[in-house]
Design goal:
The structure is a homotetramer. By secondary structure, chain A is an alpha/beta fold. In chain A, 41% of the residues lie in helices and 20% in strands. The first copy, chain A, is elongated, with a radius of gyration of 22 Å. The interface between A and C is large, with 39 and 39 residues.
């Protein structure tokens, strides 16, 4: 029996520890591990190779993914999916582990309806926006990269009377922004999930500035497209010089944290076990209430993740 | 109603976020927060002070604990405990949040049997050795500090043919060593919980060295007192020059990770809610299966923590 | 004799070590140290206070400046400068150490022409754009903060076929961008000091992409205002999806590096010695060819810094 | 013309940037670069390979040295040196760049007296103990790794009343310990170059502890073998519980700082230029008063490095 692993969509820290565990664990189970390079595009182009222990030596602490990733437009044409399936058949691979987000899950759901292919998705995206899991691979590393950046800004913020806007990733989901605002004690958090009450904020912040507040820190989720608007509001309405930081792909890089490494290992073990012990399976694994679970891919792809209430509860000026 | 917070025993990263949340949340509940400085010794010496928001501004990213901590011998004499209780009475404090380990829990258990005092313990120790909680405050930061150190050693290890022994903290419990060995892919892990099989290890490692292995990394838990012994064994039996790193209190310091900040907030909210909603209570909070729980202090103090099997499962040469 | 220290303009890592050394060294010389808080605005508003050892305990590793800073418009009106001088007189301060850039030097040059005041400027700006010094306080820390960010981006860059634009600070001077491009091996560097040859770059990069290059990294100095333009060019002309990171004030924060701490100490000793040993002096210190030197403020303020040729020599596509 | 590069002795951060620049610059000069793997042992065993640009892609941010290093006993026997020379001849290599310390310089000095071989040493050791250079490759990274560790310890130190002993590397030279003590404001520094006056220290520290000092930080250089002794003295004489940290090889690892990368580039350019423009040359390069210089190997190997007085001047209790 041969199993392959593929990264699809944006990369996430923790993918390399997952890839290493995949190779080690598949061999331990007496099966043969394969790499699919460069995501769905690579699958179409037959970039498939047997994996060895030596391929994954010394990669635990590297960000990114040694097998590459991609977003593929071609995969949404049937003739390319046929090619993808044939490439898998050539290596007798009928079971695939996917490191990616729900876009990648959907791609494989389509493939599996047309061809006989089993797969398990492992939620891997720093956006943390996938249904049926409290945790996506890469989130802990991303949050700590952002933390370092925000702590640096606080250093300089307390020297000056100034406002700072930090834009975090998160196209569909404000999770990174919300957790950052909570854990760094930011005054302002702007996410799509809730309404930022400008009037209330203006009233309170002006009062606090009079009483001695030296600076204001605003965390804005990329998906709101509100970064420039909040800067203007801080300058015009609150009356503070304001500087913007756009973290961008810094957030996707970096040495995976211990949590992301351990989660990677557990996700892989769960996924490989499911693939080996089932003949036809299309699922994704997840982490809920301290346990590793699995759900049908159709359920995950039809529902939406919501940020836990304890994260949103203590953020200011949201209603 | 007045509530106090105290740090007791070894400090842990995350104590400052907990202290900040304590002050903010107690005020939010319309109660009065107090600091007890310098642990049980400070309590005996009446180092108690009303806390203000301004005391806790800008401390989220600082390691250590702004209110100090201590280990107290005097507390085990009744006359000093009486003094401690009287000091609390002077400020009308009959409810205390304890940031500490099981030693601190035991001290307050004794106090509460003699005097009318409610308390909630919050498990705070990088050793992660407290019953009825999967997580103790500070562990995530400590693990990531160790990770940085071990990643640095790997850089130099792969240049030379050498062995490295890294001693981690953990007097009673091998958790830090075990998670470090797992997440860094160390070849050797020595903890009190399991037997390190030297014969098996020698046989396999010698074979691997012949096949091209360049270095060996051993993680040794402080509590085993085996650091020097493992170095000697690596030099005499395996035949490799070996270097020792003793991390010591580096592991206790450092900017708290996002996880330690969020856990600190949740532990505090749970603890303060319990104190406010109960008249007589002697408990500790914990984190189990993704939920925040509480248990009677007598139960916690009579039982022992065990490392989860998924951490130990994949470590080599242990039986 | 009383000496004061002031921070003026943008803050820089290393200011706190300088402030600490100022207090310790002035006392060692049997003089009295004073703090001027919140820059030139604070000087006008009489925010002056005697400094003590206890004020500067434990600040060596903090970014920012504990005495605050500001940019002052009022200082350019004579009546406010008169007030500033009178405030100094009240404390018998006629000697001042300035941590700032050439804007701050100019402000004090004006003041010293009107009133009897000695001062020494210490070049403190991450922009590294001051004449007669190879090194400005804060530069080493800023460069290493940028390095961490760029190393993170490389992780994710090598996973995808993508281009990344990183905007560094530097309004007048491309030093940060140039050193970053050199030390991180970036393909593209855009600074005001030289012309970025788009045609040449396009020709070479397209060839390299055909031969297997996976990503392109461009470092753009803020002062060029070319960040968006380079992104568009990379997408339209080179044909690669491109992501922007704007580091902003992350670069000003952070724990000062060892080099910035040691430089801070040396600059302060040189500056205080000059003030104590001269009755009328208006100078700035600098670092040239491995030695600490001083120059008349009029000379520094009339000339312009140029980036050393060895930094620019090996950057690609510049002419 | 063919030039080779070799690492010899202990590794140092900055070796990889040097190796990358060597390959790029030698090709730019239209010569052929070679790698000698695994130090002098590898040279004896004919581990020599032509180097390509692709060998050095993406290594700027890695600690260690991709070509390995070693300490060789065999090299001190003439028959092995003959073998080493013959291996070089096979590839027409008569010019070598050495990344190493003075031990490595001496080895090549012997070789060059017996056989016709030119070489340039680049001082590469975190010990910073080589004559005729103020800077050795790797020192800046090592100092900043130590800084992080010491800053972490301060966090926890200020929580407790405790003393901490940190042992830094430096077998022959106390440079790392001295700069660390200075830049971290440690109370105690123990190095071979000066006498630590215990009586004076005890008198002052006891007084300060009475006045409120909470902790003592001692930096001890490995070469003094005094770590345990200072711990005992702090416990017995000063009366404080004391904890030891032995940093070990953490100090040799880590992502090279910007300074180490830039120094690596400059050292390599200087060394390669010298080798190309001279027919018979046995020298080492160095950094003095802001300039890159070169000296005859015989001079360097016969003299001793001394720590600059400005580093030692402000350390306490040394005489």
């Amino acid at each position: 029996m041969s199993l392959a692993i593929i990264c699809s969509g944006g990369d996430a820290p923790g993918m390399n520890p997952a890839i290493k565990k995949f190779v080690d664990y598949v061999y331990k189970c007496n099966k043969t591990p394969y790499f699919i390079y460069d995501g769905l595009d690579g699958l179409i182009d037959a970039k498939i190779k047997k994996a060895y222990h030596s391929d994954v030596a010394g990669i635990l602490h590297n960000g990114g993914a040694i097998i590459g990733s991609s977003r593929s437009e071609r995969f949404y044409e049937k003739r390319y999916r046929k090619k993808a399936f044939e490439n898998l058949q050539k290596h007798n691979i009928d079971k695939v582990v996917i490191l990616g987000g729900d876009g990648s899950y959907r791609a494989f759901e389509i493939l599996s309806k047309e061809f006989c292919i089993s797969f398990i998705g492992i939620p891997s995206t720093i956006d943390n926006d996938i249904y049926a899991t409290e945790y996506c691979l890469g989130v802990d590393t991303a949050l700590n990269v952002i933390r370092h950046a925000v702590d640096n800004i606080r250093d300089t913020a307390s020297t000056f009377k100034r406002a700072f806007v930090v834009e975090t990733m998160g196209r569909e989901c404000g999770y990174l922004a919300a957790v950052t605002a909570l854990s760094s004690g930011a005054e302002i958090c702007v996410i799509n999930e809730m309404n930022f009450n400008k009037n209330k904020a203006a009233k309170h912040l002006k009062k606090e500035l009079k009483e001695g507040r030296r600076y204001i820190l605003a965390i804005v989720s990329e998906g709101t497209k509100a970064t420039q608007d909040i800067k203007n509001w801080l300058e015009d309405e609150i009356g503070m010089q304001t500087r913007i930081t756009i973290l961008g792909h810094i957030q996707r890089g970096g040495n995976p944290t211990v949590r992301d490494r351990i989660m990677a290992f557990e996700f892989i073990i769960k996924a490989v076990d499911l693939l080996i012990n089932n003949t036809q399976i299309q699922k994704a694994v997840g982490y809920e209430k301290g346990r590793f679970i699995d759900r049908d891919i159709s359920e995950i792809n039809s529902k939406k993740y919501t940020i836990p209430s304890n994260i949103l509860r203590d953020l200011r000026f949201l209603d």
